[in-house]
Amino acid sequence: MSSTDDGAATSVDVPDQDASEGSKKHLPLWQETLLLLTIAIVLAVVIKAFFVQAFYIPSESMEPGLVKNDRILVEKMSYWFGDVERGDIIVFDDPGNWLTEAESTHPSNPISRGLEFVGLYPAGGHLVKRVIGVGGDRVRCCDKFGRITVNGVPLVEPYLDRNDAPSDTRFNVKVPAGHLWVMGDNRNDSADSRSHLGSPGGGFVPDSDVVGKVFTVVWPLSNATWLSRPATFDNPALDKASALGTTTAPYALGFAAAPSLLALWRRRRYRATGTD
């Protein structure tokens, strides 16, 4: 109720609150469902592209720790702010016809392929191996006790089957910068870097091919576990040896050559001036 200048009273209609709320239109159920589904797919694609993706173990090459058809999760942001480390289990793109036909297949079911695309179905077409050497490392098999050495430091590898030798293939390689030397934990049944020594690329995996680090097994539940780097790769001598080979070696050679260069300079000076 309000008053005008001549004193006459006029009425003002106030909208009923319940009627106002009832007038708001809601999306039909099918539209809400479609919207929610679209949001879920977009989030799944973003998560797959930048954070976490599901994969499965395609062969026995990582046994006994990872069993064929285990479902694993790969953390993609692991190496955003750091390098791949020795001992990491990684998933990487095929660097050059490493995959067998069985390992390179993808699901034929359209629904499964769609779920794989958005990261809700374990992907195939990749390899899973353990990083043994990084760029600059000297990796060799084997020392007198049959152990693999990295920069002269022997590795104690608790993830191997106790009946398996660290390697039946002899090798002695220097890992190029920006590359990795990888091996399966099932050393008797793994077509890893050793199997491709004579192939293009020399068996080394480019850092750029790495999808991410495996951090957990999620299925089957009986195998579910968190994964971490074995303590053998925490040995600081590995880095010291690597640094010696890649950083201080030129200085050491320089100091070794200095006396010879000085003697040569003195002989030339003597011949030129007749003095010493």
Features:
single chain, 276 residues, alpha+beta, Umud Fragment, subunit A, 2 domains, eight-stranded antiparallel beta sheet, four-stranded antiparallel beta sheet, 4 helices, 27% helix, 22% strand, elongated
Walkthrough of the structure:
The protein is α+β, with helices and mostly antiparallel strands and 276 residues long. It has helices at 17-23, 29-50, 110-117, 236-273; strands at 2-3, 9-10, 52-56, 71-75, 89-93, 126-134, 138-141, 148-150, 153-154, 171-174, 179-183, 205-206, 210-219, 225-226. The chain folds into two domains: 33-234, Umud Fragment, subunit A (Ribbon), CATH 2.10.109.10; 236-276. Strands 3, 4, 5, 6, 11, 12, 13 and 14 form an eight-stranded antiparallel sheet that branches. Strands 9-8-7-10 form a four-stranded antiparallel sheet. The longest helix has 38 residues, at 236-273. It is elongated, with a radius of gyration of 32 Å. Residues 245-258 and 269-273 have low confidence and may be disordered.
Summary, kept brief:
The protein has helices spanning 17-23, 29-50, 110-117, 236-273; strands spanning 2-3, 9-10, 52-56, 71-75, 89-93, 126-134, 138-141, 148-150, 153-154, 171-174, 179-183, 205-206, 210-219, 225-226.
CATH topology tier name of the largest domain: Umud Fragment, subunit A
H and E string: EEHHEEEHEEEEEEEEEH
Give the termini separation: 119 Å
Q: In total, how many beta strands?
A: 14
Number of continuous helical runs: 4
Mean pLDDT: 76
What is the percentage of strand-forming residues? 15-25%
Helix content: 25-40%
Parts with pLDDT < 50 across at least 5 consecutive residues: 245-258, 269-273
What is the name of the CATH architecture of the largest domain? Answer: Ribbon
The biggest beta sheet, please?
8 strands, antiparallel
Mass-distribution shape:
elongated
Give the C-level CATH assignment of the largest domain.
Mainly Beta
Annotated CATH homologous superfamily of the largest domain: Umud Fragment, subunit A
- Radius of gyration, in angstroms, nearest whole number: 32 Å
What's the domain count?
A: 2
Strand-pairing-aware structural class:
alpha+beta
